């Protein structure tokens, strides 16, 4: 299985965001980075959950027909 271009895009996008937040010289930067990491983790977890559910539903639909 090859690399999914969507995951490649998300990885590059969040890497760029994290690098940008690291360069901010502000006291609020640490909170922003932590928040961004939590949001990124939740987005990935939701994507994995949706993929698993979609796979299970399509498997069940294939067995019914």
UniProtKB/TrEMBL annotation:
Membrane as UniProt keyword: yes
Highest taxon above the source species: Bacteria
Keyword field contains Membrane: yes
Residues passing through the membrane, by range: 30-55
Keywords from the named record: Membrane, Transmembrane, Transmembrane helix
Organism: Streptomyces lavendulocolor
Name the UniProt record assigns to this protein: Integral membrane protein
């Amino acid at each position: 299985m090859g690399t999914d271009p969507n995951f490649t895009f998300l990885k590059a996008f969040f890497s760029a965001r994290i690098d940008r937040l690291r360069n901010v010289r502000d006291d609020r930067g640490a909170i922003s980075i932590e928040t961004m990491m939590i949001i990124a983790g939740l987005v990935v977890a939701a994507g994995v959950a949706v993929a698993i559910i979609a796979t299970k539903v399509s498997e069940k639909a294939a067995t019914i027909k």
